[in-house]
């Protein structure tokens, strides 16, 4: 007997931003394996008696290895359990979803993927700005600010990231943003390009700060701080 795994995107943190399908799967789950940013009030939707297992990864903190998380998913499902793998934002966006899907496929376990509101969309909404605009912001691009070692990726497409007609969102990039800003300005992006720092989006700890690419780089060089954050830059980041 094998169970079933639902990969559920929990959105940016506000439980009111969960989808109806996400809440349904959580209520019916026998076990919920959750990320750090999917904990707190979101877990109030878990059914009584469900196993709640924290498997989140946070920069600079001890975290479960990815193969251990994948093994837990398989082991729970092999008992016949209905398992929810709760991922912050949308699980398919910098959420290491593929590694876990591969583990389930190799074990012959069925699954579904339930999308969540991406934190980038929630950050723009919180700031009262769109992500696109006709003529001057025709493209949106999402990029991670660190590789598996925590460093800035070496193979970034700097020409694309320095495009003034795009809205760019950097995930997990506070520690590496000073270096990225140097590369971007070297690729032609003006250092006074508007930038928005969005920390702990949609939670009671939410902080929004409007600045510039150079200004945020200087801020993070001194102290990036522990709060989870997104950085948006481009013409729209200055709107109010």
Strand order of the largest sheet: 3-2-4-1-5
Task: Report the portion of residues in β strands.
Answer: 15-25%
Shape: elongated
Q: Give the name of the CATH architecture of the largest domain.
A: 2-Layer Sandwich
Report low-confidence residues grouped into runs of 5 or more. Answer: none
Radius of gyration: 19 Å
Strand segment count: 10
Helical content (DSSP H or I, runs of 4+): 25-40%
CATH 4th-level superfamily of the largest domain: Tetrapyrrole methylase, C-terminal domain
Give the SSE order as H and E letters: EHEEHEHEHEHEHEEHE
Number of helices: 7
Number of domains: 2
Can you give me a brief rundown of this structure?
28% of the residues lie in helices and 22% in strands.
SSE diagram, text form:
Blueprint: E1 4-9, H1 20-28, E2 31-34, E3 51-54, H2 66-78, E4 82-87, H3 97-107, E5 110-114, H4 119-127, E6 139-144, H5 158-161, E7 166-171, H6 177-186, E8 194-199, E9 207-212, H7 213-222, E10 229-233
Parallel strand pairs: 1-4, 1-5, 2-3, 2-4, 6-7
Antiparallel strand pairs: 7-10, 8-9, 8-10
Helix pairs in contact: 2-3, 6-7
């Amino acid at each position: 007997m094998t169970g079933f795994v639902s990969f559920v995107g929990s959105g940016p943190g506000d439980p009111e931003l969960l989808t109806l399908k996400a809440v349904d799967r959580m209520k019916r789950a026998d076990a919920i394996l959750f990320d750090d940013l999917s904990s707190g009030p979101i877990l109030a939707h878990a059914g009584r008696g469900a196993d709640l297992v924290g498997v989140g990864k946070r920069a600079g903190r001890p975290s479960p290895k990815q193969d251990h998380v994948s093994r837990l998913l398989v082991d729970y499902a092999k008992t016949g359990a209905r398992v929810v793998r709760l991922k912050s934002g949308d699980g398919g966006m910098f959420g290491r979803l593929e590694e876990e899907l591969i583990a389930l496929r190799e074990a012959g376990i069925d699954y579904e993927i339930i999308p969540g509101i991406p934190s980038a969309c929630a950050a723009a909404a919180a700031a009262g700005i769109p992500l696109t605009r006709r003529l001057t912001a025709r493209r949106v691009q999402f990029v991670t600010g660190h590789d598996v070692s925590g460093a800035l990726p070496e193979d970034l497409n700097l020409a694309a990231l320095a495009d003034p007609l795009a809205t760019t969102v950097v995930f997990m990039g506070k520690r590496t943003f000073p270096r990225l800003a140097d590369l971007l300005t070297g690729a032609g992006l003006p250092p006074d390009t508007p930038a928005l720092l969005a920390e702990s989006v949609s939670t009671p700890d939410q902080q929004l700060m409007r600045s510039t690419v150079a200004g945020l780089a200087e801020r993070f060089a001194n102290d990036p701080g522990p709060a989870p954050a997104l950085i948006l830059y481009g013409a729209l980041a200055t709107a109010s």
